[in-house]
Design a protein that fits this description.
Layout (H helix, E strand, L loop, with lengths): L7 E10 L9 E9 L4 E6 L4 H6 L5 H16 L10 H8 L7 E3 L3 E5 L2 H14 L1
Antiparallel strand pairs: 1-2, 1-4, 1-5, 2-3
Helix pairs in contact: 2-3
């Protein structure tokens, strides 16, 4: 008898750009997903800022690109001291509630057979749609 493939428990959060924090309006610009047991983390940010610019025309492309790449570097384990933390600790730090122009949704849990396939599906549904 064939055994069922192991289901992976994961958490994900949507990365948001909030151009004017006091207005609390945002646009989804990325996704971060983590599986603690597998020590797996993945992040992807939008590469085309046209949608962001239509939402917030005064956005400085260079500054936003730098902020998003810093977020990605920390998630990937690069960068300063935070990047040296364990995967789940980096995820918690990046998804902590903050009043800044780069924020995340609250983390959401799920279970799946394939983390990469699930990440790609969530990215398409939540960021590209």
């Amino acid at each position: 008898m064939q055994s069922k493939p192991e289901k992976h428990l994961y958490e994900y959060a949507v990365v948001r750009y909030v151009p004017r924090v006091e207005r609390e309006e945002f646009i989804n610009v990325g996704l971060i997903m983590m599986c603690k047991r597998r020590r797996w983390i993945r992040v992807r940010m939008v590469s085309d800022l046209r949608r962001v610019k239509s939402f917030a025309p005064a956005t400085e492309d260079t500054l936003l690109t730098h902020q998003l790449s810093s977020f990605s570097a920390i998630a990937s384990g690069n960068g300063d001291a935070i990047g040296s933390l364990e995967v789940h600790e980096r995820f918690r730090w990046l998804t902590a509630v903050r009043s800044a122009s780069i924020q995340t949704s609250r983390p959401h849990p799920g279970k799946c057979d394939d983390l990469d396939v699930t990440f790609d599906r969530l990215y398409r549904e939540l960021i590209e749609a």
